[in-house]
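Closing statement on the 4'-deoxy-4'-aminopyridoxal-5'-phosphate sub-project.
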Amino acid sequence: MKSLDLNTRRSLATPRGIGVMCDFYAVRGSNATLWDTTGKEYIDFAGGIAVLNTGHCHPRIKAAIAAQLDCFTHTAYQIVPYEGYISLAERINSIAPITGLKKTAFFTTGVEAVENAVKIARSYTGRSGVIAFTGSFHGRTMLGMALTGKVAPYKLSFGPMPGDIYHLPFPSATQDVSVADSLKALDFLFKADIDPKRVAAIIIEPVQGEGGFNVTPPELMTALRKVCDEHGILLIADEVQTGFGRTGKMFAMEHHTVEADIITMAKSLGGGMPISGVVGRAEVMDGPAAGGLGGTYAGNPLAVAAAHAVLDVIRDEKLCERATVLGQRLTDRLNTLRATCPAIADVRGLGSMVAVELNDPDTGEPDAAKVKAIQEKALAQGLLLLSCGVYGNVLRFLYPLTIPDDQFASALDILSNVLAA
Ligand code: PMP
């Protein structure tokens, strides 16, 4: 088998359900650069899907993991606890944009954070209903996929879905859905499908990630908070993709005047190590009984050590400010490109969570094929780009916030070439 090329071995050894975007194989990463088996170099604007706000193999994160490696790698926190987990919870409690006493629990993946946020909300409220949004992405487990507001490919052939989950249309200018439309749908939902007194939580991404980098309008967040307060519903902000500096703030909820009751986090918290978390109002977090939350690897010591270093790096290298600066540079360049690339239908985002939507200029229809072609051209020139959006017609940019200025400028030049072509 070793004599076959890696792509052939991959298709023989692993299922097609794990769809793989690139046909090259990583061997090394450093900050915003990735090298493949042939020695080709890529500027990484995918960041392992929003995990690498602090870049590949940041020396301080490596050192923190190495130091922990010399002590112990696993005890199962629920069996034998360790201080690093507690101090990380204390740090998250002190920075999360929720007023009053807070508590934090750690898990391993983003979807586990989402699942646990819903478990906590159900346990605290004694209710079962959960409301999510179209175009949302909350993960690939049974509950995560049921909450996710996109059928293909996430829900195809996997039913039945867990019950008592409802979707509201997410506001979108390009899809002609207003905030008023979303709120009207919520009214209809309460009339047609579920008594608000049976709803445990509304879950929303402050900026939809996989759904197309759609920024939640502040007036929607404010209105949801009001509805939640009126009916005793909890507001869950899914910050798995938006967290840890990406939007120019530590948490994207800091852009809003209202607060969530619970926030989920993962991805860039670990700087490449698998760790996720749920922070929330202390009394809410204490809803589930002892033993109701956890997991064998939840809050793994190596990942906890990495997360501490990530928080240090974001603070010391001022990565929130850097996200705002880089995001503005990218947005300005994309707006300039509108003159030569009529397919650009929208440039949007928050901080460094920036995306460009491409439509057919003649029909106005979403142009996923153009996005794919641009990704391929960019890759040939050494720039790794990700797509997103319900129609697959959005390019998103998830570069490390630690990327050097000259490399960022080179990436924008490649982007200009491929968009203008
Ligand atoms: N929520 C959001 C907002 C996400 O973007 C993702 C991952 N793209 C998830 C949940 C699921 O995270 P994971 O893949 O780590 O389970």
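Residues 85 and 304 are 6 Å apart (CA to CA). With this model delivered, the sub-project is considered complete and its resources will be redirected to Aim 3.
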